[in-house]
Amino acid sequence: MTKNKGEARKFDPTFKGPIHNRGCTDVFCCILFILAILGYFAVGILAWSQGDPRKVIYPTDSRGQFCGQAGTPLEKKPLLFYFNILKCASPLTLLEFQCPTTQLCVESCPTKHMTLLKAYLNKGEQEYYKQFYTFAVAKYVSAPEILRDGLCPSMLMSSKPFTRRCLPALSTMKGGVVVVGNETIFDNGEGEKVNATDFLDASKKSNVVVEARQVAMRIFEDYTVSWYWILIGLVIAMVVSLIFIILLRYLAGIMIWVMIVMVILVIGYGIFHCAMEYRSLKGEPGSDVTIRDLGLQTDFSVYLQIRQTWLAFMIILSIVEVVVILLLIFLRKRVLIAIALIKEASRAVGHVMSSLFYPLLTFALLALVIAYWAITAVFLSTSNEQVYKVFNTTECDYSRNTCNPETFNTTNITAQCPDAECLFAFYGGETYYHKYLILFQFYNVFLFFWCANFVTALGQVTLAGAFASYYWAFKKPDDIPANPICSSLGRALRYHTGSLAFGSLILSLVQVIRVLLEYLDQKLKAAQNRFAKFLLSCLKCCFWCLEKFIKFLNRNAYIMVAIYGKSFCTSARDAFFLLMRNIIRVAVLDKVTDFLLFLGKLLIVGIVGICSFFFFSGRIKAVEQTAPSLNYYWVPILTVVVGSYLIAHGFFSVYAMCVDTLFLCFCK
């Protein structure tokens, strides 16, 4: 034994498992964590009092009022109308996400082309035009006066609602000619002719922010019509996982080999299916288009119509299949030992059956943490005030200055810049709250990581304490405590909240640094400094490795905390030296066991994923009419697959924690 690996603990025949007479550990971190939680609640209350999620849902007019919001004067005006859509082609749209033109909430979009001057010659058209006035214009005598004060648009054109905004009803005729309502040239009401192509460019710019919202809305629609089927799929995943765990309890050896064979067969079927799809598309029009040529499409089903997609899937699955088979061949002897360890873990789980239901508590607590973080983030991001700025088309000294729409017409700005308008620009603010808003957002993210890691750590300590009670029980099950899970949970919360907070704090700091590095990477993507990119990539890699190491060390430190009741640093040191003395066993046996359990997760995900694919894609004729009509059928499939993995991971994490605890107890 080398000195740098610590001293081995001497055998103690009187030791009977987790020590009951223990004291509180890492009290300072416990107090710090409690204060941080109280501060988190304060930030949430502050955000909820200042925020307004309606800003995410409803479009706003030039005065910052919400279009179509229930209980307001604009309740029956859900659509946003642009006075001059051509101004949306300005680069300012991309910089401030706001068109430099008056915007008005309307009941319906205009359905025909006309100018204000022509409308004044026809009383019927004049009445139609009035619904697009900003104010009552009874005191105005002539159309030029109305246009001078910017009270209504100089021209209307046929439009259609898109993401609650009135955009020109553009279409393309043969030869690529862009038309709006069968017209190519328009009178803009100011004596100028405008080409329909100009409206196309303006529509693209005005829609630059809401294009992503279109995809999001389609995905939301898919969830609204398929949510109950998704729940059924997740329930099936839970039942399959539970059955698998129960069978593993009584038939561990057989189930492991069945699991290995089934994983190989499921991946093999995936390769076969991809090959059949690749072959069936041969000779089909457009199937030879490459993914690069196709570019980014909002309709993702288009990618399934080209051969290259299925070829990529087939290659990826083939690589996974080969890697799995090679690992099983070269590690076959270790696999047999790992199966024996899983058998012992199965016996432990059998004596502590309540451990199988503990992940439900972890899921509930994590869901609570995620929900609180998400709601607080939304309220923080929508807690800004309405900021108005001066917009103009000609040169003006006051351009983009902050202004007040109520007093704007009485200032000297309109005299110096006749075409200037005071329009709603964005949401911001200059109060102390708004100045430090970015710090509140950062605090929200940091506390999210800290709380999520604390919940995970609590689950690990609780399970470790319960399974350690099983391992050190001389006569099983007589010497095992009556409620090992409850006893272990009580000890963890009463004595070791500080240690859990300490370990999760260290991990959270590393995770936040990784988030900041990802943020910097996004900001520097356009930069041409190769050294900066190389340095950033190295830092990202180093902190990724550091996070993995800390997670591994924390996990084993929590096991030592559960058994001996010492502080986090002492437990982490003991666990580290213990693992160093048994590095070969740790590197091979423990990781092989993790690999076998991962194959179990993969099998459950594969079974549920394949069934959901055939159901949602309408491939099963018997239930073709039952399957919901979807924009993207991959949305519920991906949700079911991810949810199935999380459910399977929850159940198998009990086994993984049991194996790690028994392994560490054996090493001691």
TrEMBL record:
The keyword Transmembrane applies. It is a multi-pass membrane protein. It is found in: Cell membrane; Mitochondrion outer membrane. It catalyses: choline(out) + n H(+)(in) = choline(in) + n H(+)(out); ethanolamine(out) + n H(+)(in) = ethanolamine(in) + n H(+)(out). Keywords: Antiport, Cell membrane, Glycoprotein, Membrane, Mitochondrion, Mitochondrion outer membrane, Phosphoprotein, Transmembrane, Transmembrane helix, Transport. GO terms for molecular function: antiporter activity. Choline transporter. This is Choline transporter-like protein. The gene is LOC110485677.
